[in-house]
Design brief:
It is built from 34 helices and 28 strands. The protein is α/β, with parallel strands linked by helices. α6 packs across α10, α11 crosses α16 and α17 packs antiparallel against α19. It starts with a helix and ends in a 10-residue tail after the last helix.
Length: 866
């Protein structure tokens, strides 16, 4: 089905899981978590006596025969990137580590979803809960100096009360949706996911973060086993097994990102799974005691979730249970499942059950989200991971005559007449029950056809974090070789906040990306720290002589905006030309040399160059690169004037074609590039020579008759001045143009002129163009004849250090002139749009590399338009 078919079939109550993050025993992320689940890894580990003594366990405890030397710790539970979130060292130190871990997991989940919260257009809600805070009494209240300087009130309210878990996230990320702390003991995080889904359906937010966190404190310690309690005597959790005797508590954090499914599809999100329905309730007093579970209460929550999901029980082929592995809890839970599922079906053993507590222990307030993410990953990978430590069922279960079986081995998750579906249960001490029905994500339309080259962006707040992000990207690509690289690039561009430390690379495919990163190829990977200010951009348009066959051809093929601009220019130019300019600009391989010679004719070269620069400008602006100023060299000023509304596109093309045609009526001339200042070259000039252009304070161009130019070049050589002939047969901006000036002026009378909409630099004056000049035909006649004062214009523009200079046209001449200008400082960035004709590199690769360098310089492209 197409995306539209899927949207048309929705009931409107479906919730999409679009992002996830976990830090769990034995797993730093969702990838490691799934690997452990799939491989049947038990992350409840043994502690040595030395480790336990180092963690503060006394020898008296260690001598106790009931002391169990096992636990499910969280690696890195004491670490926190305080500076990233704007916290000072003291504020971070007095914050409950559970709050720290939850804050980092929320950010990681948003990044996994591909969203920068600052760019999301809508309210984002936060739902979550944390476990018992032992950090305050163990680590803070025992420090009298801290109590005296901070005080108990601030210690509690700054970061050690459960009330502030989610609101701190909302504050730090500037999230405006509901921010609700949930406290229902072991079912906390699954209840939080349910409430987040309801908030989305009620329209209270457009995206929601939901999850939970628990840290056992003191950390990395075992526990004393007492007969009759829920803890395991040997440190293993054996859910539903005949030897089940209790559970083991562990530490972890998990957060998921949810959106309405219809919104997720329309926004192009990666949908990992669907919440079809969910329900919560409480046992009330219908149970043995307050701490005991209730069959009827659990069964009612499950039945309600099935009813809300509007599905048949037989379509649910796996249930991730609460599964604490206690002799009483497991039978009660399975009885409730049989009551809810078995009431509407007589089928047997079609639904597997399992419990992640056999892998990572009981994570208390984070238990539900750990179970939820396990099932989402199972749906994504179409496999059912094993529930561990199972030999044969607890005889009290009565599982033989039920819809259920314990899934004790890894197996492919088969699908029949229905999509793969699963239930997730979480049951809280005190009687709050939660059940969620999950369904595999639909097959959505693939991403649209993408560019053959992709721009990958990475940023972080520190160089080390940037290196880690680069390493993580390579690892992700290795683990997902079939991923659509265009989707990866888009997520990195749109779904990541641009931090101070930045890195960019342009790659062809996934393997190219991996190889480039692993080789640390500095020719293709650029790293920069642009600072906090956003620089302005100056467009620089080159003049005649920069053109070459097939300039920008790959952009013409791959970029619709560029192609449409070129086609529009060539269509308008046909009114004034007999030649096929398209064929000359983009010749076949066998005709390159012949067409290159033809393209040297001014009447063809100038409109071809104009079209290329104009199309590049349109392409850059479509990507959000808006110039604050423009300058052009000779004919390049026509592009600046046209883009600023001085004359229409058709009139601009007519002017440059007339200019070229008139050039062709003149006797042959020549030009010479001389590395001397204006005042030093003048003594060498004979009356028939003129300074055509002042390209830098130390580089001028001289125009005149061929013989006079040759004589000047020889004379300069005797003075050890190495002058270079310019590849042109017109003595531009010289007295040799006098015969055509009147005719050019007459033709300009046909043009309708307007005042410039934005500032640009005049070649004639070397400063900002005046409206009265830009709208005067006489100005454009002077522009044709007089010296190009390009260096003066650069001097004007280079006074602002917060500027990026972008050459918008073929070649690198203007960029080179800007780099050699004495006013250029280390703060200025100078870039070019199109490769030099001798460079063997893709046009698109080169252009995307420049786009990446603009971002590295602090410019903010419109990535959504890119």
């Amino acid at each position: 089905m197409s995306n539209q078919d899927i949207l048309d079939a929705l009931e409107g109550t479906e919730i999409a899981v679009v992002g996830m993050a976990v830090r769990l025993p034995g797993a730093k992320n969702i990838t490691e978590y799934w690997q452990n689940l799939r491989d049947g890894v038990e992350s409840i580990i043994d502690y040595t006596d030395e480790e336990l003594r180092a963690a503060g366990v006394s020898d008296a405890f260690l001598r106790n025969p009931n002391y169990v030397r096992r636990g499910a710790p969280l690696d890195g539970m004491d670490t926190f990137d305080a500076a990233f979130f704007g916290f000072g060292p003291r504020d971070a130190a007095i914050m409950d580590p559970q709050h720290r871990q939850f804050l980092e997991a929320c950010w990681e989940a948003l990044e996994h979803a591909g969203y920068d919260p600052a760019r999301f257009d809508g309210p984002i809600g936060v739902y979550g809960g944390s476990g018992h805070n032992a950090y305050l009494p163990y680590n803070l209240l025992t420090n009298p100096d801290l109590l005296n300087t901070v005080g108990f009130f601030l210690l509690r309210h700054t970061g050690n009360d459960k009330d502030f878990l989610t609101t701190r996230v909302s504050y730090v990320f500037d999230l405006k949706g509901p921010s609700i702390n949930v406290q229902t003991a072991c079912s906390t995080s699954l209840v939080a996911i349910h409430l987040a889904g309801q908030s989305l359906l009620n329209g209270e937010c457009d995206m929601a973060l939901a999850g939970g966190v628990t840290l056992e404190m003191p950390h990395r310690q075992g526990y004393l086993y007492h007969e009759g309690e829920i803890l395991s005597p040997d440190g293993h959790c054996r859910s539903f097994d005949h030897e089940s005797k209790g559970t083991v508590f562990g530490s972890g954090v998990g957060v998921v990102v949810l959106k309405r499914l219809a919104d997720a599809i329309e926004d192009g999100d990666t949908v990992h799974a669907i919440v079809r329905g969910s329900a919560i309730n409480n046992d009330g007093s219908g149970k043995v005691n307050y701490l005991a579970p209730s069959v009827d209460g659990q069964a009612a929550a499950i039945a309600e979730a099935l009813a809300i999901a509007n599905i048949e029980p037989e379509s649910v082929t796996y249930v991730e249970t609460h599964g604490t592995g206690t002799p009483i809890g497991d039978p009660i839970e399975l009885t409730a499942l049989k009551q809810a599922y078995g009431a509407k079906t007589e089928q047997k053993h079609f639904c597997g059950i399992g419990s992640v507590k056999t892998n990572i222990g009981h994570l208390d307030t984070a238990a539900g989200v750990a179970s939820f993410v396990k099932v989402v990953q199972a749906l994504r990978h179409k496999q059912l991971p094993p529930s561990l430590n199972f030999e044969k069922p607890n005889p009290m279960l009565g599982i033989e005559d039920s819809p259920f079986y314990v899934n004790a081995a890894l197996q492919d998750w088969q699908s029949g007449d229905f999509p793969r579906r699963a239930g997730v249960s979480s049951l809280g001490v005190g009687g709050t029950n939660a059940h969620i029905i999950l369904e595999e994500a639909p097959e959505l339309d693939p991403s649209s056809e993408s560019r053959p080259w992709q721009l990958l962006l990475l940023s972080a707040k520190t160089p080390k974090a940037l290196d880690n992000a680069t390493h993580n990207l390579a690892a992700f690509l290795r683990d997902n070789p079939d991923v659509n690289l265009a989707d990866v690039a888009y997520t990195l561009q749109v779904g990541r906040q641009g931090f101070a430390q930045r890195r960019a690379l342009v790659v062809h495919d996934v393997q190219d990306a991996i190889a480039t990163i692993e080789a640390q190829d500095r020719q293709r990977i650029t790293t920069a720290n642009p600072g906090e200010t956003q620089p302005s951009v100056v467009f620089m348009f080159p003049g005649g002589g920069a053109q070459y066959p097939n300039m920008g051809y790959e952009l013409y093929v791959e970029e619709p905006v560029y192609r449409e601009a070129i086609d529009e220019c060539l269509s308008l130019a046909r009114k004034y030309l007999d030649a096929d300019l398209h064929t000359l600009m983009f010749p076949k391989e066998h005709a390159v040399e012949a067409d290159a010679a033809e393209l040297e004719r001014p009447s063809l070269a100038l409109p071809a160059l104009f079209a290329t620069s104009y199309a590049l400008a349109k392409l850059w602006m479509s990507w959000g690169i808006e110039p604050a100023a423009m300058t052009g060299h000779s004919m390049g000023e026509y592009v600046a004037a046209c883009l600023n509304g001085v004359f229409s596109l058709e009139d601009a093309l007519a002017i440059v074609i007339w200019r070229g045609e008139l050039f062709e009526t003149l006797p042959e001339g020549a030009m010479l590039s001389v590395p001397l200042p204006e005042d030093e070259i003048r003594p060498f000039l004979t009356p028939d020579l003129d300074i055509a252009a002042i390209n830098s304070p130390y580089l001028c161009a001289v125009s005149g008759p061929v013989a006079a130019i040759e004589a000047l070049q020889q004379q300069l050589a005797t003075k050890e001045v190495e002058a270079r002939r310019i590849k042109i047969n017109v003595a531009a901006h010289s007295q040799m143009l006098e015969p055509i000036l009147d005719e050019f002026g007459r033709r300009l009378q046909q043009i309708h002129f307007n005042s410039p909409q934005s500032p640009y630099i005049s070649n004639v004056t070397g400063t900002w163009v005046r409206p009265e000049d830009a709208t005067s035909p006489a100005y454009w006649v002077r522009h044709l004849r007089h010296t190009v004062r390009f260096a003066d214009g650069l001097s004007e523009l280079l006074t602002d250090e917060d500027r990026v200079f972008l050459e918008v046209g073929p070649g690198k001449t203007l960029g080179s002139l800007a780099r050699m200008h004495p006013a250029k400082s280390r703060h200025h960035t100078i870039l070019t749009s199109v490769r030099h004709p001798k460079e063997q590199v893709s046009d698109l690769q080169f252009c995307l590399d420049t786009l990446g360098k603009l971002w590295l310089a602090g410019v903010r492209p419109d990535w959504s338009a890119f």
